[in-house]
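Thread: quick sanity check before group meeting

JM: Hey all, I'm pulling together slides for Thursday and realized we never actually wrote out the predicted structure for the chain we discussed last week. Dropping the sequence here so it's in one place. If anyone has concerns about the input, flag it before I start.
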Amino acid sequence: MKRYSTVIFDLDGTLMDTLEDISNSVNYALGELGLPIRSIDEIRTFVGNGVKELLVCALQAAAKQAGILYSEDMLARSLPLFRQHYTVHCQDCTKPYEGIFDLLEQLKKAGIAMAIVSNKPQREVSILRENHFKKWIDVAYGENESAGIRRKPFPDMVFRAIDELCEDRCKTIYVGDSETDFATAMNAGVDCISVLWGFRTEERLRTCGATVFAHSPSEVFSLVSGSESER
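JM (edit): ok, ran it. Output follows.
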């Protein structure tokens, strides 16, 4: 592979294991609505397309189990419940994956620019960047559709991040763990590395067209720096 000058990271399932906190907040909202909670493995399959889609999937599954029909009113009621709970509890169990700090340090020393682009709400993206990644990453975009910025898989946030970094799209690569991340990279016209320590299996990622995989953060550096092709 070629050497890249810019890496844009997904957050959930790529830089950080956020699943337990997300699951707890989803189940808090379901419980407040009197609906059956979902397993963490089930919620894993719902994550990646933003809060609304996450809750729609969880509500539909819960409503089906309860023998009732899903409604838009359920979504309207659950959204503020989830957001209020998650804002307070987004760091209870969340932590960077092993090897991520070493990867970011290697990329920084190599002069490679970095950003975060996530479908997690902007508030929580900013909190997590500030508390965990500010040493390496200055640019971080989260879901902000109210400002007219479309969420992934639309390429809007990727383009904004590249522009803010004053970097070249042709030398940018996107690193994520889901089908949405791969589609985002394709829509932005940039290359993609799909990581295998996150929320999706290699088999599932291959079905959406992914072909370049990393089993560990150290492999990401090899692929980004071009050293993989030199072995």
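AS: nice. Residues 19-89 form a domain with the DNA polymerase; domain 1 fold (CATH 1.10.150.240). The chain has ten helices and eight strands.
JM: adding both to the slides.
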